[in-house]
Amino acid sequence: MPEKNSSDSYCLGIESTADDFGAAVVTFDGKVLSNTNDAYMPEQGGIHPREAARHHADVSEKVLAQAFETAGVKPQEISLVAFAQGPGLGPCLRTGATAARALASYLDVPLVGVNHCVGHIEIGKLATGATDPVTLYASGGNTIVSAFEAKRYRIFGETLDIAIGNCLDVFARAVGLKQGNGAPFGAVVEKLAKKGKKFVPLPYTVKGMDLSFSGLHTAAVQAFQTNKYSIEDICFSLQEVAFGMLTEVTERALAHTEKPEVLLTGGVAANKRLQEMLKVIADEHGAQFCGVPIKLAADNGAMIAWAGILAYNSGISTPVEKSLVNVKWRLEEVVAPWLEE
To answer: What is the pTM assigned to this prediction?
Structure first.
């Protein structure tokens, strides 16, 4: 039986919700000993779920071995296996869940299914020291503004169609941009945006507390196709409008909840302009801005391991017969008893 807050008890976390297969070893007192990852890169277009799942199956043994080797921990020393149970792409989730079940059964240790969104928030809090934040989780698959209220993380606002990261990726592909070495489409757009000088009018769509990015993406592509504007000006304008929408909703959630911190996580958290805009509203409300380092902000195994430890220490485990993946597992469906202690 692993002990709470022990540096000698280890959890293996497996992340496989979309294009990344990640594995990490984290101690029960919150030290990330390893955090390895291998990303599926489609030859063209977006993520094909079955091809991504095939990639995950091909690299899983290598990634897991790297996680153990980097951590300096043997598989037999693992006390707990946590895996991303949802939300995400079904074939990808099932590949990670299968590996987790097999390892937990072989090692005869408990299994914990983790909500991917909870994992992002909890590792962000661990990494930054935030205790009770309003969180903007902005990635290629999710765009959510949330905060903890009444035993659960509540969603105060979210995208009604595509996620902000997907909006930037699809725009970049449509206008012919190329990803560089270690530079995803979001980083390519950000680099061009820094050279933009002229604002191109684009649709700003906030409906209540929710957002819509599909019309913005379409308008940005159409603006490029007119040949009236430079790609730098369009990237600049796209970022200003999209991040303005995100900042408005986050500020309204902050004003409502009066939380002491604003936490930015997800792959889009790497964007300096978005960080800058959120810091301004945090300062205006007397809150602390907490940006999660990109290694822990993007999808990773450490966030699954840490959320699994928190859940397990609160008496939560997942029997194998109840470990089916849930592709639409919403954040507010998760009870978080560890926050009540």
So the answer is: 0.94
